[in-house]
C-alpha cells in the first residue's frame, strides 16, 4: 500500500513539473496583457530568443529572465525587477513603469548588429557588452539613468554608443555614488549628464560629439532647457529701457559738446 502511494505521488509530481519544463524549452515569447500579472519570484524563464511584452504587472523578484530578444514595457504596464537579472539581445523599451530595485539588466550580442534603448528608465545596474563591436542606440531626446553600476565594454572591436536619430542628442546619467566599468567604446551624440564617464579613455570610433565623456575637459553637462519666449509686456519694458538709455547717452554727448 505504501509503495503504491509513493508511486502515485511520484507520478503526480512528475506531471505537475512537466508543463514548467516544456514552457522553458519551447517558449518563444512572453506576454503579460493588461490586467494580468506574473510573478517569477526565485524562478527562471528562458525565452530562447523570443520577445517579452509587458502591458500588465510583471514581478521578477529574485528570479532570472534569460534569452530575451526584445523587452517592451507598454504604456500602463509595470515591470518590477526586484533583485533579479534580465539578459537581452534585442531592444529595451520602457513606455510604462520600471521599478529597478537592485536588479541587473544586461544587453548582449545577438543576431542583429544593434540594439536600441528606448523611452526613459532608471536602472540599478546596466551592462552593455559586445564581442563584435555592436551598436547600442539610445533614443534621441531621452535620458537613461543608472544608480549603482554602469558597465560598457567592447571585448573585441570597440563597442559603439550612439543615437536613434543621428545628430539628435540622447543623455546618460550615472548618478552620484554609482560606479563605472567602461572600456573600448566609441560614443556619438550621447552626452553624460551625471558623473564624467571614462575620463582616462579616448573615443574609439565615435564622431567626437560626446560631452561628459573621455578626457575632453569640463565636467558633465546638463540637457539644454528651452528659454521661454518673452511676452509683449516684457518686450515693451525692454524697448522703453533701451530708448531711455539712448536718450540719456545723447544728452550726455550734447552736454559735453557744449
* Proportion in helices: 10-25%
> Roughly how many Å is the radius of gyration?
27 Å
Shape: globular
H/E element order: HEEEEEEEEEEEEEEEEEEEEEH
Distance between the termini: 128 Å
Secondary structure tally, helices: 2
Structural class: alpha/beta
Q: Oligomer, anyone? A: single chain
How much of the sequence is in beta strands? 35-45%
Account of the protein in words:
The chain is an alpha/beta fold and 258 residues long. The chain has helices spanning 2-26, 232-257; strands spanning 29-32, 37-39, 44-46, 51-54, 57-59, 64-68, 71-73, 78-80, 85-88, 92-94, 97-99, 104-107, 114-119, 122-130, 135-138, 143-154, 159-163, 170-174, 179-183, 185-187, 190-192. The strands form 3 sheets. Strands 3, 6, 9, 12, 14, 16, 18, 19 and 21 form a 9-stranded parallel sheet that branches. Strands 1-4-7-10-13-15-17-20 form an 8-stranded parallel sheet, with no helix packed on it. It is globular, with a radius of gyration of 27 Å. The N and C termini lie far apart (128 Å). The relative contact order is 0.07.
Amino acid at each position: 500500500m505504501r509503495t503504491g502511494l509513493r508511486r502515485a505521488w511520484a507520478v503526480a509530481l512528475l506531471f505537475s513539473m512537466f508543463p514548467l519544463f516544456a514552457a522553458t524549452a519551447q517558449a518563444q515569447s512572453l506576454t503579460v496583457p493588461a490586467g494580468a500579472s506574473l510573478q517569477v519570484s526565485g524562478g527562471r524563464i528562458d525565452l530562447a530568443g523570443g520577445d517579452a511584452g509587458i502591458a500588465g504587472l510583471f514581478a521578477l523578484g529574485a528570479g532570472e529572465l534569460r534569452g530575451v530578444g526584445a523587452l517592451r514595457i507598454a504604456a500602463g504596464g509595470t515591470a518590477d525587477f526586484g533583485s533579479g537579472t534580465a539578459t537581452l539581445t534585442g531592444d529595451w523599451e520602457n513606455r510604462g513603469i520600471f521599478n529597478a530595485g537592485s536588479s541587473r539588466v544586461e544587453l548582449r550580442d545577438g543576431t542583429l548588429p544593434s540594439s536600441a534603448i528606448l523611452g526613459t528608465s532608471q536602472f540599478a545596474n546596466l551592462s552593455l557588452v559586445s564581442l563584435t563591436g555592436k551598436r547600442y542606440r539610445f533614443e534621441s531626446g531621452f535620458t537613461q539613468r543608472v544608480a549603482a553600476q554602469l558597465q560598457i565594454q567592447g571585448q573585441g572591436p570597440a563597442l559603439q554608443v550612439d543615437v536613434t536619430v543621428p545628430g539628435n542628442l540622447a543623455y546618460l546619467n550615472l548618478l552620484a555614488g554609482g560606479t563605472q566599468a567602461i572600456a573600448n567604446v566609441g560614443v556619438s551624440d550621447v552626452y553624460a549628464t551625471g558623473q564624467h564617464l571614462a575620463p582616462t579613455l579616448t573615443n574609439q570610433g565615435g564622431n567626437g560629439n560626446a560631452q561628459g565623456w573621455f578626457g575632453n575637459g569640463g565636467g558633465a553637462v546638463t540637457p539644454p532647457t528651452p528659454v521661454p519666449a518673452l511676452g509683449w509686456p516684457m518686450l515693451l519694458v525692454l524697448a522703453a529701457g533701451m530708448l531711455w538709455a539712448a536718450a540719456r547717452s545723447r544728452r550726455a554727448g550734447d552736454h559735453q559738446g557744449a
